Amino acid sequence: xxxxxxxxxxLDIVLKTAAEHNAVKIxxxxxxxxxxxxxxxxxxxFGFAALAANTIADGAVVDITIIPLVGKCNSCxxxxxxxxxxxxxPLCHSxxxxxxxxxxxxxxxxxxx
Length: 113
Ligand SMILES: [Zn+2]
Fold this sequence. Notes:
It is built from two helices and six strands; from the N terminus they run αβαβββββ. By secondary structure, it is α+β, with helices and mostly antiparallel strands. The strands form two sheets. A three-stranded mixed β-sheet has the order 2-1-6, covered by helices on one side. Involved in the maturation of [NiFe] hydrogenases. Required for nickel insertion into the metal center of the hydrogenase.
C-alpha cells in the first residue's frame, strides 16, 4: 500500500524533528500533499495513526492540505491547472509542459509539547 510507506516516511521525519526539539509529545502535524502523488488522505491518516501508536506522535492530529496540479507551458508561458492529467496547454495545445506544483509531499509544520 502506497500510503503506508509514505506514512512511515512522514513518521520518521516528525519523530526526528521532535527529538531535535526535545519534545515529549507531537500534537498536530500539517502536511502538504501534491495532487500528483495520488495519495488518499484518509488512507494516509489511517496508516499514520497505526504506525504512530506507542510513539510520541500517538494520537496526533494530521491535517492535510492538497496542492493542486499546476502546469506551465514551455512554448507560450501559459500557467494552468491540470485537469484529469491532461498535460496539454489550453492556449496553444503544446505538450511541452513543466509541472509547477502538485508533486509536493512535505511536512509543513509540527505542533509539539
Ligand atoms: Zn502554450
